[in-house]
Amino acid sequence: MSYSDIAFLSDLEEIVNDRLTNPSEESYTAQLALAGTRRIAQKVAEEGVELALAAAAGDKDEVVDEAADLIYHLIVLLADQDLSLGAVSNRLKTRHYAR
Fold first, then answer.
1. Total domain count, the chain
2. 44-58 average pLDDT score
3. CATH number at residue 78
4. 13: domain range?
């Protein structure tokens, strides 16, 4: 894994925020946001279950696909809540160093 692989998550977060700020009818992200927080949260839950099932089945390609879907929907949910991956990262750091 390279830094650029992880840095793309920041790029994706910017793309999501742009789609929420400048919505278009063609944007799945904008349509999802328009459906509301409950629908976004439902998608996070669905993708989490699908990821767990793929892992239980031992299908690594499907695990990668479902993990990608989960991370994307998590980024949308965070943006909907005026939060960021940075806030999550900071919380993880705080927990780690509190040991």
1. 1
2. 98
3. 1.10.287.1080
4. 3-97
- Alpha-carbon gap, residue 37 to 32, rounded angstroms: 9
In 3D space, the residue among 79, 66, 85 whose CA is nearest the CA of residue 23 turns out to be 79
Cα dihedral value 27, 64, 9, 71, nearest 10? 60
Place of tokens 């927990």: 95
- At residue 60 the predicted structure's pLDDT band, cuts being 50, 70 and 90, is very high
Q: Which residues contact 44 (CB under 8 A, 6 or more apart)?
A: 70, 73, 74, 77
Instruction: Tell me the mean pLDDT in the region 45-61.
Output: 98
Element (H, E) at 55: helix 37-57
